[in-house]
């Protein structure tokens, strides 16, 4: 399986699983847990969650899904910027660990940049790391200038989780290169454009029809995912609350896009020609 490697040498599959909105509806919880477990069984060890998602509901559901399998999971959670003081970060981490039913996170992220000085949050992250509560830390929704500011303070940031899909390519201008050059893994969130219009795109559909997966002709979502996975420093974390979607996403790992299709995608979903502010959801 394609992998990405963190600065400390830890490698994980380049396809992970998101969990925003999971746990929000009682009617879909069982299927969401089954989907995460099917992913783990297939070797997708990375699960992304956050204290923000459903005010803890996502973390509780993930905790249930990984029960008994913690050793096989690379678990990511995030602290809200409003909680990211030194004491607040530690409290948030403890609360996340409790909801998740574990005593450590593999990666803990600052969800986005807020009013707390970066130094203070970094100090809390390092403290949590020294206590074994987290294995490594990173950030989310940080643009190039924010990353430069972070670099000036500290060089041990492991990841930057950012919006990245065919319709949101701004980070290709300089942020993706900056992250790679500084040994920061870029984690692509909403790689399927949240399952919206992107998946109905006619060019994507036309390209999909020219690829085969183990279960038949490829679908647009699989091409969109394969596209994010073409970059060796990108970990892509689609959310699939349904097992059928999870299985389709797994099959995207078998797709390597041809150069002429990449060119066609570039012509249709233009890469950035100049710097634009980082988009976020
Ligand atoms: P995605 O781009 O992953 O899209 C999710 C939607 O696509 C769901 O409706 C899902 O349906 C559907 N879907 C999944 N697989 C397929 C498929 N093969 N074919 C068709 N539809 C499919 O959006 P998200 O916003 O959820 O992003 C992924 C994850 O990234 C989040 O869950 C979260 O963990 C993280 N994130 C982080 C942010 C941050 O600020 N750091 C912001 C936003 C997201 P269904 O669930 O019904 O299977």
From TrEMBL:
InterPro entries, per the entry: AKR, NAD(P)_OxRdtase_dom_sf, NADP_OxRdtase_dom
Domain NADP-dependent oxidoreductase: 15-268
One of the Pfam families matching this protein, by short name: Aldo_ket_red
Family annotation (PANTHER family): ALDEHYDE REDUCTASE, OXIDOREDUCTASE, ALDO/KETO REDUCTASE FAMILY PROTEIN
Protein name: Aldo/keto reductase
